[in-house]
Design a protein that fits this description.
heterodimer, A: Rossmann fold, Rossmann fold, 2 domains, 7-stranded parallel beta sheet, 5-stranded parallel beta sheet, B: 8 helices
């Protein structure tokens, strides 16, 4: 019997980060493949409300660790490592968010465990289960085997649907961790405030590239009409035209919305790696040879400043 | 201050990577190799810190003799000396971090700056492993508030702010939903994100000077590190290809297709 421990992530507000539910699905699948049971962990200042929210997701137990403040790697590493040892987990996993990417390798380091990042799926079953993950910006899907007793995994959210509640009420167990003094002090968090849906959760994403010359008004207007999120290519984020949180790509956000509109984006491989899992891709670019057209379902060779308003008006009429 | 930076040898990110039909690896013919772009940012940041605060930049890499090319590149950018851990076999992230931890114990840098990930395996782990093995504080995904087209960037100001007493570094990090700021006691591990800086080109005099800069050779056995991989790649495959799309002549056709064919609006 293996134990799969999935770590919930809390936002700075204390609310559950939705990507946790994708990781819960990944954990359920792994528990099924390894004949194991799913456990959840909630760490934070006040983990109880989120633990309560997760009780209907079919976990054998939900372990809470309180008394922690704002996320910083060192105290969370201490808390999670102690919890992993206490529940004798065989697998510990979390969504590959900024926190997951920061925390998990450090926990793996403390417990001398091997880790697979951005896991997309599984191969085999039982103790021999292996993990599929992207390499070279997604140009290759590698299957990897981890040979340490504890295996640490971060999950790519777009590859696992968000978990739905299955009923039942998991037992909630409070765990007390001893947290040593940290060498790192949290100073502040400057949030990019936006009324739009979260980039990784939106059904529609409208992204702008160099072709916008920094003018995102039309990109934003189309996103707002479709209740979508706004994304961007690396070039425009580097130029400081939009916040870094907008970046779609291998090293930014990986998204897979129902509709992805790329306006004025040429389509570097690093950008494509972040959006080619989208259901329908529309590309609008003046350059008919731009690589973005190779992944687009519908390509329109046009000036985005003409095409986007026209598209918005047509879609507005359609919606009535 | 003394800064240790890394220079992993990776396939040029603009190379076309193709998987062999038997899944045993990728085709190596015609591939060009470069320093990992995130490591290049780490080298640049090290040079800026050394220029501002004084001190030296030591660049380290692990691999066969070919990684000397990447070490020479970093030396040509301005790094003062290089450490080459000679190891030709397979390595995983835990193994690399174990070697770098020993190098840090020997070199005693105030800061180790690494790329947040290498663009070949895309694991994003070595910096975090290293911080843990050394018991140091860390700040991953280092960035800065100013853009890459700002005046501060043009003046080659470091994005990492060392405190006046030289005992800590303030790091702005790219995280979900915004920018996080941490104060980390030195010595510390920092990993770089894309927008920390724009790396300089190696100048011709820099390239000439690099030829006479020292490269110290070490081995895993000499460092006492067992690098037997705990992670092995058993297979590689190409990702599922997207069905070829079409070009539409105008917005009206696009809207019609989105409505009746894709059914997404």
């Amino acid at each position: 019997m293996s134990i799969v421990l999935i770590v919930a992530e809390l936002q700075p507000s204390g609310q559950l980060r939705k990507a946790t539910l994708n990781a819960v699905t990944a954990g359920r699948q792994l528990a099924e493949k390894t004949g194991g049971e799913l456990h959840l962990a909630v760490l934070g200042a006040n983990p109880a409300p989120v633990a309560e929210e997760l009780r209907g997701f079919g976990a054998r137990a939900i372990h809470t660790v309180g008394g922690l403040s704002q996320y910083v790697a060192e105290p969370y590493t201490a808390a999670l490592s102690q919890l992993v040892q206490s529940v004798q987990a065989d697998y510990v996993g979390m969504a590959a968010t900024a926190v997951g990417r920061d925390l998990l390798p450090r926990v793996a380091g403390r417990l001398r465990a091997a880790m697979a990042s951005e896991v997309m799926g599984y191969e085999g079953s039982g103790a021999d289960v292996q993990f599929q993950r992207p390499m070279w910006a997604g140009a290759v899907i590698a299957t990897v085997k981890l040979t340490t007793a504890l295996k640490v995994l971060s999950f790519r959210g777009t590859e696992f649907p968000m978990a739905e509640p299955t009923g039942g009420a998991s037992e909630v167990k409070a765990f007390t961790a001893s947290i040593p003094a940290s060498k790192t002090a949290f100073v502040d968090f400057k949030e990019v405030k936006s009324a739009r849906p979260n980039l990784t959760e939106a059904r529609v994403v409208v992204s702008g590239g160099r072709g916008t010359k920094g003018d995102f008004k039309e990109v934003e207007a189309l996103a707002d009409l479709l209740n979508g999120a706004v994304g961007a290519s690396r070039a425009v984020v580097d130029a400081g035209w939009v916040p870094n949180d907008y970046q779609v790509g291998q090293t930014g956000k990986v998204v897979a919305p129902t509709l992805y509109v790329a306006a004025g984006i040429s389509g570097a491989i690093q950008h494509l790696a972040g959006m080619k899992g989208s259901k329908t891709i529309v590309a609008i670019n003046k350059d008919g040879d731009a690589p973005i057209f190779q992944v687009a379902d519908y390509g329109l060779v046009a000036d985005l400043f003409k095409a986007l308003p026209e598209l918005r008006e047509s879609l507005a009429k359609l919606k009535g | 201050m003394k800064i240790l930076v890394t220079a992993k040898r990776v396939e040029d990110y603009e190379s076309k990577i193709k998987v062999k039909p038997d899944g045993s690896g990728i085709f190596l013919e015609g591939l060009k190799y470069k320093i990992n772009p995130f490591d290049e940012i780490a080298v640049e940041e090290g040079l800026r810190l050394a220029a501002k605060h004084g001190g030296e930049v030591v660049v380290a890499s692990v691999g066969g003799k070919e990684v000397q090319e990447q070490l020479r590149h970093a030396l040509a950018m301005g790094a003062h000396k290089a450490v080459w851990v000679n190891h030709a076999g397979p390595l995983d992230q835990l193994g690399v971090a174990g070697l770098l931890a020993k190098v840090c114990e020997q070199e005693k840098p105030d800061m180790a700056i690494l790329g947040k990930q290498a663009v070949d395996d895309d694991q994003n782990q070595v910096g975090q492993y290293l911080a843990e093995l050394l018991g140091w504080g860390m700040a991953t995904f280092a960035s800065k508030v100013e853009s890459l087209e700002s005046d501060a960037e043009k003046a080659k100001a470091p994005g990492l702010a060392v405190s006046a007493d030289g005992k800590a570094v303030r790091v702005v990090r790219e995280v979900d939903g915004g920018l996080d700021t941490l104060d980390v006691q030195l010595p510390a591990v920092v990993t770089t994100d894309l927008r920390l800086n724009q790396p300089r080109y190696a100048s011709l005099p820099g390239i000439m000077k690099a030829k006479s800069k020292p490269i110290a050779e070490l081995t895993p056995a000499g460092l006492g590190v067992d690098v037997t991989p705990k992670l092995t790649i058993t297979k590689m495959a190409a990702p599922p290809a997207r069905k070829a799309g079409i070009k539409v002549p105008d917005v009206a056709t696009l809207v019609e297709k989105l409505k009746s064919e894709a059914k997404v609006v």
